[in-house]
Amino acid sequence: MSWYSPRMSVSSSSSAHTLDAQQTPAAPQQPIAPRQPVPQTPESVKDLGPEVCYDVGAFRELMRQYRQLDDGVTTRLNRALARSRSSGLTHSPSLLYDPHSSSSPYLSPSNDKAQAQASQPPARPSDLGTSTYGSLPPAACLELWRELTGYWRGRQEVIRFCTATVDANADLQRVREAAEDVQRQRREADDSSLLDADAARVAGSSQSAGGRRLQVSSSPTEPPSRSRAETSEEALRRMLHNEETVDSIVRQRSLQAFKARCNLFRLPEGASGEEREFWNNGGTARR
């Protein structure tokens, strides 16, 4: 049976989306956090904070560490399968067995019939002909499934947190710029009034002396260009979207590896909609 490892070779493919040094978004001096708690990361993954969302290198390193946890799950799947084969917990290729019979491959001296009935889902007509070879006990698969989906959910929360952080700081920046525009317009209005008064005095002096009238331009000063700030914001959002796409591919590979080793596993009753989405396609990348 071919085996797929979700090792992050995909991460290297994301280099095609790598931002140039000149496009790296500049973080605010003290980026604010959105109105939501900061997601907690596992011990082997660096801590997340608003400043990490603006550091492209730090954010991608965090995601790389987080995705490596999928590798740990698939490694444990391989080891558990090897142990189950060596201990006789699996059969050679055959038609689907009756999981409640005394010949169930999940029964052993340490597991009685009641335990097997509790952990093994009932056989379904659609499962007839499915090989019982190379499949882990459902209880072990359920534990690894919950761990795997916990990592997937955690990475999605990291991306959503950084997206919300960028949006919150962008909104704050727009408010600050609007306030600066109001203050600038007030200063220009005050300066214009003073210039008009001075111009009137100078004009009176010029007329009495037969001189020329002074003309004062009242055109407002052009506001500073914000194209650079907008480019940085767009570049950061594009980076987050690319990471979300990469993570979707990683989840699909991990899901394929899980289903190859837990081919008799079924989602428990009452599984959430998100869990079912994970099971069906590994979750799709969302903007």
TrEMBL record:
One of its GO terms (cellular component) is mitochondrial intermembrane space. Residues 1-49, 83-132, 180-233 are annotated as: Disordered. Residues 1-33, 83-121 have a biased composition (Low complexity). InterPro entries: MIX23. It comes from the Eukaryota. Pfam families: MIX23. Residues 180-190 have a biased composition (Basic and acidic residues). Belongs to the MIX23 family. This is Uncharacterized protein. It comes from Jaminaea rosea. The lineage of its organism: Eukaryota, Fungi, Dikarya, Basidiomycota, Ustilaginomycotina.
